[in-house]
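Weekly structure sync - notes
Attendees: PM, LS, DV (DV joined late)
Agenda: review two folding runs queued last week.

Item 1: First target. Sequence and structure tokens pasted below for the record.
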Amino acid sequence: MQLRREDDVPEGREDPALSATEELALARLALDEGDLRHAADHLASALARAPTLPEVHETLARLAAADGGGLDLFPITHHTFVGAVVARAHLLAASGRPAEGLELLAAATGHAPGTQWAGVPWVTASELVERLEPEHIARVLMQVCAVLPDPVPRAGRAALTPYLTLARNAATVHPEHGLLLGAASALARRLGEVPLAIRWASRGVRTQPSKMGEVWLGYAYRSAGRTRDALAALYRAVDLDPDDLAIYADIAGTLAETGRLDDALEWTERALARDPSFDCAVHTAHRLRHLRDGDLAHLVALADFIRDHPDDSHEHGDLAQCCRGRPWLGQLTPAGGPLVDALRQAVADDDNGLGSAVRLAAAAPPSALRTATSVAPGLRIEVAGTPEPDPREPRRASAQRLWHFAENVPTPALPAPSAAAVERIGQLAHPAWPHPPAAYDAAVGLAGLDLGDLLGLLVHPPAAPANALGRLLAAQDPSIWVRGVQVWACLGLLHHRTDEPWEESTRRRVLLDLVWGVEDWVTEAAMFALVTAAWVDPSVRPDVARAVAERLADAAAVARARPVPIAVSLAYLALAAPELDATTASLATSLIGDLSPQLPRPRNPLRRLWQRLIAPRRR
């Protein structure tokens, strides 16, 4: 059974915007007219919007009385509206089948955990648990826990407290049922009731010792910061079932959190010795190896494992955890250079740059100049001269010219993208991503755009959307949105004509053209696309590593003659490239060390901006 979103419209309905009270009024009208089917549809919509409203439940009871129970009005199909599922749950409980009703409420919670689907008297009544088998209650609690983060953010806990009340009632009636106490502990832990979680889990293992009981107890101790006790419980779990390798990974993760990396890796190796393909151990091992020595190869190997094993036992976050906040692994880098610094100051002062000036030693990247003149038209920009090599000229002969220059003023050399392209990039562009393969997968949404649209987006980036992300960037650093559009447009190029072999492909040719074009933010975006291609396709790694090495060497040579605002970012890109040679890696590290003061420093307010941008992407 798959549930449709609570803002979807039941079959045959056209208006999604009615409130719960409006839906309730229509339900009552249909019920008075004897139109039970339409009454049921409107009641389902009312429940989806206000699942605890007493008047909705009173009308549902009237409908049930008119239809001999009402269950046939809310059938379960493959795609069922969540409001209909909740209505059926309440009717099942009223007809003496609360176990089935509780399962449906748990399914609704899995669909939308932030809604208080179970906040009704029959769920929290103490007598309910006396009518249910403790095993069934445990299964429902585990079903709910399976969809919740650990811990649940405070703002989301109120919607789940009815399940905690259910757990309290059940633990009172069944004080020695190990499975129930363990499942109740898991829920309490997620809802921030850690001392209660410890008490329940401890009682469970005392009355019915079991592997899972010890695991639940270990997790509870870990949430309380009692690492020694947590490890002791997990060790006992291994003794009870040496073949459950997931516990080995749990032990490794717990040891790593206390800084005992060598001990942690020993446990992952013990698990891998038993099963080299066990996903939990593989993910944990690669993460810990990378944590120990910082070698990118561990993360690339993990990405390869994920690609080759799509049917892992459950979703893992190790790769995303390692890439989060890392330049180009999990986010684009902030633009560097005095022009962008002046742009940020103009935005902070909210004065369009009036009365401010910035003097540049050489022409700025065209994307930076276009962004600055658009956002801060009052900013006076002076270019001291044209040092060699001329930054307005491509670094290599290029078949694709993006810009025309009149003196130091760039204008796009390509037509604007279509409205469809603008809409699609607005839906996808974001300055952060879980890891490069995830960015590649997300960019498949651009696969339908033609080459002209994707290139047009690079020089005609649309305005930031009128949402929280757009407002945040407009208020602090508009350059990030432009760079994000360019990054995702280049990722879209990776999905262009994917039937062509890489070496002769249009996507490779165009991206290399962009990499070697005029020094610009587009250069970085195109190189990131090449690096991403190497992450997702091992066969292209040598080719990409060569291209990255050559482009970085060129940037380093130019930087000895004049400023190269994109040099540090290119160095970070190089360090994100699989199979990069040691000489280029050393050059990249040197460039970052020598030139990184051009980028915002860690205590700059921009650091807080990045934290806010990345936060919505965390699970």
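Item 2: Second target, run right after the first with the same settings.
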Amino acid sequence: MKVLKETEYHRVLPVLIENSRRCPTFAYSVAENIIPGIVYADDQIQPRTVLIGTRNGVYFIAGNECNPTFNDAFFALYKQHTRESARFTLFSATGNWDRVIYNLLKEEIIQMKRSSFEYNPRNYPVKKSSYLVDLRSEKLAKRPLK
């Protein structure tokens, strides 16, 4: 498991996109250098397994779960965080990852479920409004509200 440089974070985007149905927003934000964090990968050029973390201890793991070298390094990182009493909240990409994590961490974890929802604009048609906003003067627009 290698720590990527910030200039390399974008290389994990294909793994995130491949797992987009269960990928939390923070993982994209770190990968795109929008929020600070850290990115671990099995390969610096073409990552297949990734662990993305924020500064406050929230992580997302995705990609090839049949990667013993990466999984062992992940376990060591988890142990280090627990020794330091640091927060370690982990989201996984698949049920297969859930099983790998459970096998690695056994009774050390509390597994929780989460739900996500997808907005479908066809289910909520936009109603046309019967009013129009018209800006008459810039001076009027900049006037403070009372």
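Discussion on item 2: The chain has five helices and five strands.
Action: LS to circulate a short write-up before next sync.
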